[in-house]
Amino acid sequence: MDRFDAMLAFVRVVQFSSFSQAAISLNMAKTTVSSQVSALERHLGVQLLNRTTRHVVPTEEGAAYYDRAVSLLSELEETEAATTASKAQPKGRLRVDMSPAVGHHIVIPALGSFVDSYPEITLEIGCNDRPVDLVSEGIDCVIRGNLIHDESLVARKLGTFDLAICASPKYLERFGTPKTPHELEEHQICRFFSSRSGRFFDYNFTKDGIRSSVRGRHRVAFNSIESCLHGAISGLGIVLSPLYLLEEHLQSGRLERILVDHQIDGIPVNLLYPQHRMLTSKLKAFRSWAEQLFAATKHVTPPN
């Protein structure tokens, strides 16, 4: 038994909760993966996995072994990568997921520099706001706005989106311009809600050290910030949006900023990846590139 191969097979089975998916990821037969894990269990003298017809989950001993195995495999990969860094470029398929707004307006326009720098990496980019399971879907990392409370993920902060609150001239002419956040309670809001949680987000302001939170009323809500913008442009209500999405609409006059003397809490944006997955050289390369990209993006405040 090759203990390294058996350890890797076991780690993949836990990550995918499936012998079949682990075998596919390793380009092996399912029977080979099963034999390697069984040999590892005999070698260690403990049962590492509970197997049923539908599920594969680690035992208590298996979970403890998994944590140590992931750490060892990651350290081994980093050692090999450091040794061969001068000879080899990061390579392989890298699957990344992000919102359509971030993809269309920030990442994709700049992607040529990454492709030129890493010709051996093949990118597969998903642009959607749906919830994704990184491990079961084989996604290497995601870029997401707002705080993500998931202990299974590592969050690398890329920055904070600066925000502004706006409305169309048509809406303001019809309903008036609010002078204070409190007056928003009497206005229609083009509300954004999260596809992942279904949560609606309040508008949080600060002026002269005093914080206020406003919900407002809405008759139409959207799970896409760009849809919120189009709703506001058509006169449906007031919208809160990242400034990087607003510039062209402000310059064209389709939208006007309001409450400009109030500070609005920004939206943190993070790159997230599974905590127990080995940090590959291709993921490190994309993470470093994304950090530089967002640091140079207008209306994104860099991390402290």
From TrEMBL:
GO terms for molecular function: DNA-binding transcription factor activity; sequence-specific DNA binding. One of its GO terms (biological process) is DNA-templated transcription. It comes from Paraburkholderia pallida. SUPFAM superfamilies: Periplasmic binding protein-like II, Winged helix' DNA-binding domain. The keyword DNA-binding applies. The lineage of its organism: Bacteria, Pseudomonadati, Pseudomonadota, Betaproteobacteria, Burkholderiales. InterPro entries: LysR-type_TF_proteobact-type (IPR058163), LysR_HTH_N (IPR000847), LysR_subst-bd (IPR005119), WH-like_DNA-bd_sf (IPR036388), WH_DNA-bd_sf (IPR036390). Belongs to the LysR transcriptional regulatory family. Keywords: DNA-binding, Plasmid, Transcription, Transcription regulation. Residues 1-59 form the HTH lysR-type domain. This is LysR family transcriptional regulator. PANTHER family: HTH-TYPE TRANSCRIPTIONAL REGULATOR, LYSR FAMILY TRANSCRIPTIONAL REGULATOR. Pfam families: HTH_1 (PF00126), LysR_substrate (PF03466).
